[in-house]
Amino acid sequence: MTDVTDEQIDRLEELEARIDAIESREAIESLHASFVRDVADRRFEALAGYFAPDAVIDMRGHGPRQGRAEIDEHFQGMEAVPLLGAGYVLSSPVVVVDGDHATGRWTWHRFHSSAQVAGRPVRVWGVWEEGRYWCEYVRTPEGWRFAVMRFRMVRPDPDPDLEAVGMTEEGASS
Fold it and tell me: Distance of CA 20 to CAs 13, 26, 100, 119, Å?
């Protein structure tokens, strides 16, 4: 029998780290896609569960919220917003894993097939919005969770504070 060499051990540790990074990236992409699916399906009661207990969100003009209770309160408030007939596309993930932490940038589109006009529903074709997520993730005993989620609209009318919060279309500053 051949003895295991230090070189082989180093190689196995390197491969284990690479596999973990690939599996982690896949888990993070699935986490974010499932989160957006629950938003689209208006399952607001499920959304806080995607976040670490001390997570922070900064969603457009609503101001930062910290902790699952505040995050849940924020998303429950979305229930009053009529978004019937909207479809979502989450794309262009740039996810970088570093051990038990990761960062991610995403492009988000919402396409509307109906809207409220003068208080009544009207079918509308071609109305769309584009936004960006800038996120940090953390590995928890329950799996990957959001640690920080920032979201801003970039098209057709960008949110006015993109630069003030260190976010541009190209990315987010630290």
Answer: 10, 10, 10, 51
